[in-house]
Specification:
Order of helices and strands: HHHHHHHHHH
Low-confidence stretches: 1-37, 241-252
Protein name: Dystonin
Keywords: Actin-binding, Repeat
Organism: Ictidomys tridecemlineatus (Thirteen-lined ground squirrel)
Largest sheet: none
Strand content: under 5%
Mean pLDDT: 76
GO molecular function, one term: actin binding
InterPro entries: Actinin_actin-bd_CS, CH_dom, CH_dom_sf
Length: 252
Amino acid sequence: ISGNASYRCSMSSSADFSDEDDFSQKSGSASPAPGDTLPWNLPKHERSKRKIQGGSVLDPAERAVLRIADERDKVQKKTFTKWINQHLMKVRKHVNDLYEDLRDGHNLISLLEVLSGDTLPREKGRMRFHRLQNVQIALDYLKRRQVKLVNIRNDDITDGNPKLTLGLIWTIILHFQISDIHVTGESEDMSAKERLLLWTQQATEGYAGIRCENFTTCWRDGKLFNAIIHKYRYGICGVFSLHKHKACFFNF
């Protein structure tokens, strides 16, 4: 009896496995876009299939997506850390690891105090409760200044969440740094990002074949960076010709 039960069990497992194979083949023959095959983006039957086959092993496309995202985060982390330290040095403080050194909220509060000139309260204890409270003080202060914080909670920063920590610092930069930009021709209802885009368009006006329409695709070939550098530091970026057929670019 036990042998028959074992046989039925193995047959059932193989049948389930083949059904999933058939389902995956019928679900579409088009190749998934990079990122669609990441484990957390897969449909339930595909996640089950990977477990049966021995775990969620990343394929080359998935590894490439994660590698690019990781490199981007490293660049942002390094850039944001330098920006923070430029301001914290005024109060003799320093951040070594962006994700770790903001967790207790003290450096975050100090940064906001330097940027705003205001004095904020803070908890002096070292328990998790005090850390959460300090981060919440910083978040509440930003909300009072009408800074939009999307899905960022105090425990995200206290737990050292990389993505949300980077998102918080970028939001602070947008509000305190870029919001101070004033451009000829701006309107009162323009956001800081829109004013920065307008400034970029004005700075690169007259450079053949260059037009800044966004902060993504327009920057990929490096020409916009070169045009801005050439505009303000002529000797660094080589020779630029304003004639369409004689433009000489030194890309990064």
